[in-house]
Amino acid sequence: MSHYWTTIRLTKTGERWTATQHGVDATGTGETAQQAAADYCATVEEQVNGTRQEPTDTDRVTLE
Question: Which domain of life is it from (predicted)?
Fold first, then answer.
């Protein structure tokens, strides 16, 4: 299994976070930055694989 790094842009509007990436037609949202990033990844997965696995508490999103 290969691992790759990417940059996800996180922006906060009011009490909601949005996750986007330059050149990718996907958006994730959540009450926290971590939730928005996880939602973004699930959205990309759905677009690529045709299925969506909802993020769980054990899924890891690292914010640096």
Answer: Archaea
- 31 in a structural domain: yes
Q: Are strands 9-13 and 16-20 parallel, antiparallel or unpaired?
A: antiparallel
On whether residue 56 sits in a domain, the answer given is no
For 25-29, the CB contacts below 8 A with 24+ separation are none
Q: What is the pLDDT of residues 43-63, one digit of tens each?
A: 988 888 887 776 666 556 665
Q: How far apart are CA 24 and CA 59, in angstroms?
A: 22
pTM for this model (two decimals): 0.74
Give me the number of domains the chain comprises.
1
CA–CA gap between residue 44 and residue 55 (Å, rounded):
12
